[in-house]
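Subject: Interface between my chains keeps coming out wrong

I've been trying for a while to get a sensible model of this assembly. When I model each chain on its own everything looks fine, but I need the whole thing in one frame so I can look at the contacts. Pasting all components below, labels as-is. Any help appreciated, I'm running out of ideas.
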Amino acid sequence: DAKTTQPPSMDCAEGRAANLPCNHSTISGNEYVYWYRQIHSQGPQYIIHGLKNNETNEMASLIITEDRKSSTLILPHATLRDTAVYYCIVRVLSQGGSEKLVFGKGTKLTVNP
Amino acid sequence: KAGVTQTPRYLIKTRGQQVTLSCSPISGHRSVSWYQQTPGQGLQFLFEYFSETQRNKGNFPGRFSGRQFSNSRSEMNVSTLELGDSALYLCASSSTSEVTQYFGPGTRLTVL
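Reply #2:
Try treating it as a single job with all components included. I did that and got this:
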């Protein structure tokens, strides 16, 4: 089962920041928070990941609370092309070990003109 | 660097047939994972291959199998197709130095 909880849907106005929350209250100390998004019928696209510090890349920012029980993905200036299902995933990184992603239902973000 | 490629992109089969899907990972990536996505069950992990060995397996029947070749390309096979096997099959690859999984565009399988 997925270890994360996300709202099923959100709306955002084009040009505004989109803030997508995720709860992961049972996260362990060595588990990372990953975000992917999936535009209709395409493969999931990696966005960003983090352990405890806030992270930023060219796509988004990831804010993780100090207790690491929740996080927020921020798309600073949402465009219509950001309309997608966003998945928050908690995963363990074990060097050289086997990996799998456990997807929940995600948040359907709709960016409106 | 080219991304993950999957062939074919679309496939139509009938019940009882078998199907083979192919995945070419990003150059240098040695781990390939397969996922099934359906409207009812969402994205579910099928199996992962690393250096031609299956390292992890999800909860799917034995009709679902896979393999990986020495060049890291992978195939998955589904035998005795059922209507419920209609899905988007996704392949993802990762490297040992940066274990983020990158997904391909998927193969849409329709079973009639």
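Reply #3:
Confirming on my end. The mean pLDDT of chain B is 94.
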